[in-house]
Amino acid sequence: MRRSAAFGIVSFLLASSLVAPPAQAAPQQTAPQQTAAQQAASQQEGFHQSQCPALHIAITPGTGESHAQEDPGQITGLSKGRNFVQEVAEQFDGVDAWQTPYPASAGMVTSIDKEEAQAMPYGVSRREGERRLLEHLQELLAQCSDTKVLLVGFSQGAHIAGNVATQIPAERVAAVYLISDPKRSRAIGNQTAAGATLPLTNKGAIPSDRHGVLGERQPGEFEGLNVVQVCALHDPVCSIIQGDPVIAFARAQDERSDATPYLESDSRFDQARLLASEMAMVAQLPSTSLAKVMLQASQHTTYTGERRDFTTIDGVRVDDWMAMELSRIASEVTGEHKDIEPKPADIHHGYWQMIGYPLWKLMDKLYGPKSDQAQLTWQVFDL
Q: Bias regions of kind Low complexity — which residues (predicted)?
């Protein structure tokens, strides 16, 4: 089972003692690079002008939601919720999709449920993701002169997609959607200082003293690009108060480049060293700041998935809103017009909700909406 996005925020801000013990083996760093080269060669064979798509969607998931050896043609999307990229790619003849295969790691917190996963500092993982995504897009655009690209990223993936978007010709970029970007610039109304649109969510407007946990993008960095940044007010990854001690901690994680000392050996000792170095950094954080971030961390997982506390835009859950947005862009680029209808935000998709929602409605009808039976059912099934 794929790790939930909750591990992304824990890894990002707390870096990790909530995962497997140090005995977990870490594969050699060179293997994913060799596999990536083979994947690139395979992709190159398929880039022929006559087969080039009108729109190419590249999605980069967040921490723990991918690994370096995944098949980029298998679009798994984000950890939970609607797989909007795959859905749109299947709806339109002139659209295809690609998912960035990268470590998606933040130290010991990674997709360790996968045998191919690697543990490495956030900064190393992020730079590797940027390299792979940029190389893929440069190759595609060089061989497909009429193709436009649409970039999507969540959390660490949003950091990557945002950085890469500024390194390719703006006229080839149809749009960029960054969900919970850790480099989100401060808001100026419904815009950010970097030049992105910031839709209003049900969580409320974001004050100007809040920005991404890894600092801010340069003013005007997205000039000439159609960039949309989605951020919930209390999500500490994309909306943290200026001066919070967690910011310095997160930046230190992003700047780390010591990938290999702990990774080229399967020994318990080397794995323990990596975990210990991260725990030492966590120990330096003020307990009050750490507790506050932990309380707000759940907001990082409200964009998708089976949650009661959804983040919505115009009354539509974010992953459903993304399906509509990507469909709109695809219609504009391809000339095909297909509507993807949103699902009401109060419809849940998980097994627990499939059982719990009808049971709650029954309790509601039998005993009343404020009855103990109805309230208990609601809480037990996290509706």
A: 25-44
